[in-house]
Structure to design on (238 residues):
């Protein structure tokens, strides 16, 4: 059995955003598990906490490692990347590599405050922002990617919890303590690349991959290119 891969989604989305990667990795023989974080997907009734989200990653790693007898590639996008950095820095057991996409901006108080104001304005819309969320996705993504996002539902009420909890995240410090190889992946036009070089320098064994013609949702915009990076990381673990 080949190296397993754990996939951790972004904010307000769910495990279904990884359909293209799950199908491609499964065809290549890799066991794959895409999880829902607290407050998302099948777990919308739960409150999001950073530690609860990290526990989801740790439990997913353990499940895959025990089933396959291989160390695991952990891959996260945006919120999922920050959570994965937090989890792997504190619980490195059975993790062979980390792919962290769309997370090269530290969640400072100014950044979080700006996102909080925007999120509250969206949630205040009559439909809670559902229509706007869908229209933005349709404007930015291929049709199949939009359907993948929508399949698990959008977590419209989770942002306050996420932004409050992310104030405790320290991704640069996490990178400095992680000993396994880390792939930092960004879309060429991702607005979360503001401290990219600092993130590369912070890690002990860090590789940067910038995907052309992609923005923040790089795994959805360029699924083949992103899957190739996952396969590269899995090959390194093997």
């Amino acid at each position: 059995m080949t190296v397993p891969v754990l996939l951790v989604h972004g904010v307000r989305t769910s495990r279904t955003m990884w359909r293209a990667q799950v199908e491609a990795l499964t065809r290549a023989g890799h066991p794959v598990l895409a999880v829902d974080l607290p407050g998302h997907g099948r777990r919308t009734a739960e409150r999001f906490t950073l530690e609860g989200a990290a526990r989801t990653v740790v439990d997913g790693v353990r499940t895959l490692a025990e089933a396959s007898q291989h160390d695991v590639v952990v891959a996260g996008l945006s919120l999922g990347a920050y959570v994965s950095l937090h989890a792997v820095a504190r619980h490195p057991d059975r993790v062979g590599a980390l792919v962290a996409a769309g997370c090269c901006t530290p969640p400072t108080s100014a950044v979080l405050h700006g996102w909080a104001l925007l999120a509250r304005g969206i949630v205040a819309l009559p439909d809670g922002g559902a229509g706007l969320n869908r229209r933005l996705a349709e404007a930015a993504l291929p049709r199949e990617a939009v359907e993948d996002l929508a399949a698990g539902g959008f977590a419209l009420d989770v942002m306050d919890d996420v932004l409050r909890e992310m104030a405790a995240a320290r991704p640069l410090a996490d990178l400095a303590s992680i000993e396994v190889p880390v792939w930092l992946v960004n879309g060429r036009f991702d607005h979360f690349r503001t401290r990219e070089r600092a993130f590369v320098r912070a890690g002990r064994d860090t590789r940067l991959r910038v995907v052309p013609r992609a923005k923040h949702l790089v795994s959805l915009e360029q699924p083949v290119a992103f899957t190739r990076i996952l396969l590269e990381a899995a090959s390194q673990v093997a």
User: Anything to note?
Assistant: Residues 93 and 150 are 33 Å apart (CA to CA). DSSP finds eleven helices and six strands in the chain.
